[in-house]
Amino acid sequence: MTVAAVKGEKTVLSDADCPMQHSVRLMGEIDGALRGIGLTLPELDFIACVVGPGSFTGIRIGISTVKGLCLGAEKPAVKVTSFDCLAYAVEERDKIALVDAGHGAVYAQGFGGADVSKGYYPAEEILAKSALLLSAEPLSFPTRVVNPAQGLVRALRAHAELIPAEELAAEYLRRSQAEERA
Q1: Which of residues 17 and 146 earns the better pLDDT score?
Q2: Closest CA to 110 of 131, 140, 89, 141
Q3: Structure confidence at residue 19 as a pLDDT band (50, 70, 90)
Q4: Which residues in 87-176 belong to E strands, given as ranges?
Q5: Which fold has domain 2-81+147-173?
């Protein structure tokens, strides 16, 4: 779980490893980041969140929290993908951002000259591509593990598009396990 507050060139970043605790800790982390940078909710220009791909529950917690904050504070939202956070963490041009999808598959998107459309792929299909492979965690094949929190602020600065909070929605690249089993 990553929370960032930015004021000019100053950034307060909280990158907490809290499996199964997002719903308990998120509001405290947001409050701490805002206090750490000297901002209040009404002073924000926008509130951003990662819309996926990733943990079904984690993505939904983030989106619902940001929607509530945006609506309550009458602020616009900005959506960022997990891929953007990974890709903007490094300077190299040709890169493929990967998120573990389990069962020998990955969610992937190419950046720069890497020709990989955003999607769900068997891992071996991605390994055949000649580009730098980036992930947030070690996978069962070689990747450069990067901190997506470092790419978050860069991604927002590069292409923050303001949208109404009502338009925030998860970007799922495949059906959930429950839907696949039904």
Answers
A1: 146
A2: 131
A3: low
A4: 95-102, 105-111, 119-122, 132-135, 144-145
A5: Nucleotidyltransferase; domain 5 (3.30.420)
